[in-house]
Design goal:
alpha+beta; 3-stranded antiparallel β-sheet; 14% strand; 35% helix; 5-stranded mixed β-sheet; globular
């Protein structure tokens, strides 16, 4: 797909007001001026317009979107679906800290604390635990059970990402796509066919790298990858993670603009066609979340689907009878 595709556009972010409203950015705390990360947060948001551009492509046709993301250009990209096109690309940990105005100076300590609490108590529920020092696998386990972490869920499948975006959508949704080799200038095992690890990598799969490069929340970087030992949901979703080095900035502010694309889909126009086709691909909550919870969640879409007639129009399908 050429870069001149007529639905493509480049957008400059000037979203300070929207982000403040959506996430309640911290303002004055305790009535004193802080020479801390708090000032850094405000300064960086002010300069978003000058620093961040990336390509946006808009679609009203499911067939056209499917053609684009299935093309060779997006082979080996990773994808994330969000049910609102207005949401920035933040981790669940970032959203929580910003929304509830946790002081930025406390972020590293609090992030470390919730990991420690989970590791101390998970043995009461789980029979098989990650290695004590494998922080990445612990974080992945926390992420998939709903804890706020700095891991951002992506999938190697654009169709899995599309399902997550469209499942409960009624307005415009976003499918973010990232190109692993372009995220930073230091190769990682995710971009090597051999999956070998080198000593100069900063990925959280290296022992001690999470504490050194990510927890301090000072490094402008984002890496992509999975733990060596993958959990059931990660496998089912063809999942991977983007891990940002800074929590106060969205991922598109941390990586080269050439390595990230935002697809905006008009859910009103294409959701019905897309969800029906994803259903025939066997992409549903039942397959993406193996177990009783996923099965139960999958029943919502069954209300829109029947093999003999269309529940939305009550028209009988060819060859069937009511």
């Amino acid at each position: 797909m050429p870069l001149s595709f007529n639905r493509s556009m480049t957008r400059t972010h000037n979203s300070r007001r929207r982000l403040r409203r959506k996430f309640r950015w911290p303002g004055r705390l305790h009535g004193r001026r802080h020479n801390s990360i708090l000032h850094f947060v405000h300064a960086e948001v002010k300069t978003m317009a000058a620093k961040s551009t990336y390509r946006i492509e808009r679609f009203t046709s499911w067939d056209r979107f499917r053609e684009v993301v299935s093309s060779p250009e997006y082979r080996s990209w990773a994808f994330r679906g969000q049910s609102s096109a207005d949401w920035p690309l933040f981790s669940s940990l970032s959203r929580y800290l910003l929304k509830y105005q946790v002081h930025p100076d406390a972020w590293p300590q609090q992030e470390s604390r919730i990991l420690r609490v989970f590791k101390r108590k998970a043995h009461l529920i789980l029979q098989h635990l990650p290695d004590q020092d494998d922080q990445f696998e612990w974080l992945a386990l926390m992420q998939h059970h709903g804890a706020p972490t700095r891991l951002i869920d992506f999938s190697w499948s654009p169709f899995v990402a599309t399902f997550f975006a469209l499942e409960n959508a009624s307005e415009a949704v976003a499918i973010w796509a990232v190109f692993p080799p372009g995220l930073n200038d230091r190769p990682t095992r995710t971009t090597r066919a051999s999956q070998t690890t080198k000593s100069n990598e900063i990925g959280p799969w290296i022992n001690g790298a999470y504490e050194k490069h990510f927890l301090p929340n000072k490094r402008k970087v984002a890496v992509i990858g999975e733990p060596h030992r993958m959990n059931q949901r990660l496998v089912a979703q063809s999942g991977t993670f983007v891990i940002p080095g800074l929590l106060q900035r969205p991922v598109d502010e941390l990586v080269p603009s050439s390595s990230i694309v935002k697809f905006v889909l008009d859910a009103k126009q294409l959701r019905r066609h897309a969800m029906a086709e994803l259903y025939t691909m066997n992409i549903s909550n039942a397959t993406l979340f193996p177990g009783l919870d996923g099965l139960a969640r999958s029943l919502a879409y069954e209300l829109e689907h029947h093999w003999a007639f269309d529940p939305l129009t009550m028209k009988t399908l060819p060859g069937f009878a009511m």
